[in-house]
Amino acid sequence: MTRPTPRLGTEGETFGRRVGAFLLDVLLIGAVFGVFSGLVAALTFVFVADPTGPVAVEIAVLALQSLTVVAGFGYFVLTEGSSGQTLGKRALGLVVVTEDGEAVGYWAALVRNLLRVVDALPAGFLLGAALIVVTERGQRVGDLVAETVVVETA
């Protein structure tokens, strides 16, 4: 994906679209998780002597959970680091840039997404959502630390 041109100064107007973009991204990750779940289940039945035994089920669940976390995290970091956008942000006309309006790099994408865990506190991304609403530039914890903002595309 190519980097879109940011419309600087629009970071305070993006809350609803940020939520929508995140939901689209989560649906995409969930769809991929569904495909991998089917693959793991099929492979378990082919290669494991007792595929319904507790050990096989625990291993399959652990593998799927680990894969989902790593793939989901990687998706956000790689897409934002390469183009400033996830597919959800692209669909809804948003882009992540530095506070100065420059293209965000992989390091900033890594930092802002590592801190997504903090933004999720205490539940349902309440802290992150509250900060987006109350900070002048619509920044959650990850954005504040990574010095990034989410703006509309031109």
Describe the structure.
There is one protein chain. By secondary structure, the chain is mainly α. Helices cover 62% and strands 8% of the residues. The chain has helices at residues 15-47, 54-83, 87-91, 106-114, 116-119, 126-134, 141-146, and strands at residues 6-7, 94-98, 148-153. It has a 3-stranded antiparallel β-sheet with strand order 1-3-2. The relative contact order is 0.20. The mean pLDDT is 91.
Keywords:
154 residues, mainly alpha, three-stranded antiparallel beta sheet, 62% helix, elongated
Helix content: 55-70%
How are the strands of the biggest sheet laid out side by side? 1-3-2
- Residue stretches low in confidence (pLDDT < 50, at least 5 long) are none
Q: Roughly what is the average pLDDT, rounded to an integer?
A: 91
> Which band does the percent of strand residues land in?
5-15%
**Strands, count:** 3
Count the DSSP helices.
7
Describe the global form.
elongated
